[in-house]
Amino acid sequence: MNGIEKRKYPRYEVKFLVKYKEADDSKPKWNVSQVKNLSLGGLAFISAEKYSQETTLVLKLQLPHAGLESAKNEILTLAKVKHVHEKHLGADSYIYFTGVAFVEVDESNKSQIQAHISSLPNKS
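Now predict its structure.
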């Protein structure tokens, strides 16, 4: 690794839940995980499944500040897996730190993400 930052947007440590599933998965079941960091360009979360790079996921975000406006104010977006880091928990148990880049984010959703980032106490 050469130490050059490839991200277009800075990322911020956060903790909220994300629902996700593969875009081509016709099953109605969503996985739920904790988001570790967020930017205008994507996010990272913990997954029990290892996804291949460029896998397209459907994400449902419920940003903490959005709950003040409406309990159903979810952000639904597509994202592509950009990196996966495996962590061995013991025996045959693993978790995967999964970084994704947003593929489709409309202006309203982008504004909600920006508002959440602006409200963070630890932002630079």
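The helical segments are 107-119.
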